[in-house]
Amino acid sequence: MKSLLVMKFGGTSMGSAERIRSAADICVQVHAQRPVAVIVSAMSKVTDMLLETLRHAEGGDERGVEEMLRKLGEKHRECCAGLLDGTARDETQIQLAEILNEFARIARGVLMLGERPPRSVDEAIAVGERLSSAMIAAHLRNRGVEAFAVNARDVVVTDAVFGNASPLMEQTREKAQNLLRPALEQGRLPIMTGFNGATMDGRATTLGRGGSDFSASILASVLDAEELWIWSDVDGIMSADPRLVSNAKVLEEITYREAAELAYNGAKVLHPRTLAPLMEKEIPVWSKNSFNLDAPGTRIVPVTRNGPMGPRAVTSMTNVALVSVDPASAALSGTKIMARSLEALAAANAEVLALTSSSYRQNFCFLIRTSELPAVIEKLEEAFSIELAHGYLHPIDVDLDVGLIAIVGEGMKGHPGLAGRIFTAISQQSVNIIAIAQGSSELTIGIVVRKEGVEKAVRAMHEECGLGA
Ligand code: ADP
Ligand code: ASP
Ligand code: MG
């Protein structure tokens, strides 16, 4: 469908009855002009609340569970009451209660078991998006748009990596074409849940935190959309997180590769895997602000009109860990140890954010997300059980007091002396550089520093490269 637009509304854009109304205004307006498919996130904070409920349940805290269930019910009832009235409201309230009951059943199961099986967690936390999609769909129907809520577990087919699943694009395409295309052709407006999916045999999965962006790009790709618009609470993709850098400026255009590098290095504005499904078909993406419709937003495209522009934006991540593997015996081959470590990382399904090594000491260290640390340590200790037991390898060292900062831009290679200037600017803030990783992509320089220095270093780098408004 050539003119199809896919739009995604994030958590803040779905954060209250008033916000959902504004999102619906946008849907009504666009739907009058072209076919649209919409992806929604849960109301902001709801996924965190669902996870917190499960943590209470796992810890045997029944009162905590009931209190969270009460808060979740209240939040959605209040939002629904602000959006709808009469029969539509009553019917939607019943629907919301049913969805929340499904969640309560899982949470009470976890309470009984004392553990959280990953697949039950995925089924449980997808509830947030089911609740928000039910509300906005009902509200749109009330306004005369033939909208209908779709649970992505009926559309997005994934592998079985619970909590961080990857889509199987061919199978997803088939489902989307069968389920959504006929409706779109009839002028109906599907509102699909972001974040979740299911395996081929129907087990519930999720795509990782912030995954609704990824859901949207998956859907845009399999429906051959003309464009994807991602609605958030900032005017577009900026030269830095505006929460850290007060003079960060909105970028008019950036490339897929730049956006992907920014996201991988911590820019929360996009889920890291968002761009991948769009690259082959070159579907353009707009990052827009549902709180400020006058701002044009950022256009993400294969190549920018001005060509490579050198440094564009700075990002940071503090939920990371630096893991060091250090042979105690010169008899061990550093290369083999590295190869086996990387295999262990792959088995743990972890992503390496930066990697550095010393050929002299044969040791090396890599940066991963803290959330992936337990699985990584388990796999490393399993892989090196003999070497560790016999002292051929020093105990695996984990440093949590670190952060990653990165500068991203196509064409940085053509700016001689840039790296030196950045390192000097950071050092002048008395921030110690622990490791440097200049990605082979040539469009990112990643720097590991002490956690307390992250914000200072981000501002120094932003300033040194003249990225501000
Ligand atoms: P949503 O709920 O709509 O998905 P997110 O909270 O996930 O929105 O992402 C938007 C947030 O990303 C912004 O509020 C901003 O603080 C943060 N952010 C981090 N880096 C950047 C950047 N380079 N440009 C814009 N926003 C950024
Ligand atoms: N609701 C999910 C989360 O908070 C997905 C998303 O908002 O993109 O992680
Ligand atoms: Mg997000």
Task: Summarize the structure in words.
- 41% of the residues lie in helices and 19% in strands.
- The chain is α/β, with parallel strands linked by helices.
- An eight-stranded mixed β-sheet has the order 3-5-2-1-8-10-11-9, sandwiched between helices. Strands 12-17-19-18 form a four-stranded antiparallel β-sheet, sandwiched between helices. Strands 14-15-13-16 form a four-stranded antiparallel β-sheet.
- The radius of gyration is 23 Å and the shape is globular.
- The model has no long low-confidence stretch (mean pLDDT 95).
- Adenosine-5'-diphosphate (ADP) binds next to loops.
Keywords:
single chain; 469 residues; alpha/beta; Carbamate kinase; eight-stranded mixed β-sheet; four-stranded antiparallel β-sheet; 16 helices; 19 strands; 41% helix; binds adenosine-5'-diphosphate; binds aspartic acid; binds magnesium ion
List strands and helices in order, with pairings.
Blueprint: E1 5-9, H1 17-31, E2 36-40, H2 46-58, H3 62-83, H4 86-113, H5 118-125, H6 127-142, E3 147-150, E4 157-158, H7 169-179, H8 181-185, E5 189-193, E6 196-199, E7 204-206, H9 212-222, E8 227-232, E9 253-255, H10 256-264, H11 276-279, E10 285-289, E11 298-301, E12 313-317, E13 320-325, H12 334-347, E14 354-357, E15 364-369, H13 373-383, H14 385-389, E16 397-399, E17 402-408, H15 418-427, E18 433-438, E19 444-450, H16 454-464
Parallel strand pairs: 1-2, 1-8, 2-5, 3-5, 4-6, 8-10, 9-11
Antiparallel strand pairs: 6-7, 10-11, 12-17, 13-15, 13-16, 14-15, 17-19, 18-19
Helix pairs in contact: 1-3, 1-6, 2-3, 2-4, 3-4, 3-6, 4-5, 4-6, 7-9, 12-13, 15-16
Magnesium ion (MG) binds at residues 10, 210, 213.
